[in-house]
Design a protein that fits this description.
It is built from 7 helices and 5 strands; from the N terminus they run βααβααβααβαβ. It is an alpha/beta fold. The protein has one domain: 3-Layer(aba) Sandwich (Rossmann fold), CATH 3.40.50.1010. A 5-stranded parallel β-sheet has the order 3-2-1-4-5. Helix 1 packs across helix 3, helix 3 runs antiparallel to helix 4 and helix 5 crosses helix 6. It is globular. The mean pLDDT is 94.
Length: 145
């Protein structure tokens, strides 16, 4: 049986760049786990790579390799950001949290599946809301259905 998780960029970048919680994030890459995200994830990950290059924490060619892998891999199912904008607008205002993070959360709400994040501020913002049941901190092991 396949378990579905919505995943955000804070988790995905850890698969490519060793950081705190990399080992925990890698547990969500498993044959029995289906990962879904808004296609905005690609933009956000590309931005992180550019920032790492600017700060001399990543070589350009390695960043390009990571980006190419992310853009051509089929291990994350992407949902069009355009289809999420109207509904995300309300959630972002309800949660008083940045719109771009709430795009991921809107996918979780639409699907009724948990969102895995390594963004502590985002996690805390949602954990104190009516939607807390849909938020998973990256350190929590994947619960298989």
């Amino acid at each position: 049986m396949t378990t579905v998780f919505v995943i955000d960029a804070s988790v995905v970048v850890k698969w490519y760049l060793p950081e705190i919680f990399t080992e925990e994030a890698e547990k969500y890459v498993h044959p029995s786990i289906r990962l879904i995200a808004p296609d905005y994830l690609q933009v956000e990950c590309a931005n992180v790579l550019c920032k790492k290059i600017r700060n001399n924490h990543l070589h350009f060619m390695e960043g390009e390799r990571i980006l190419n892998h992310l853009l051509t891999s089929r291990w994350i199912e992407f949902i069009s950001t355009q289809t999420l904008i109207r509904r995300t607008y309300k959630i972002a205002n309800d949660l008083q949290h940045p719109f771009y993070d709430c795009l991921y959360f809107m996918v979780a709400i639409q699907l009724g599946k948990p969102l895995v994040t390594a963004d502590r501020k985002f996690y805390e913002s949602v954990k104190n809301s009516d939607y807390s049941h849909l938020m998973v901190w990256v350190e929590e092991p994947p619960r298989m259905e």
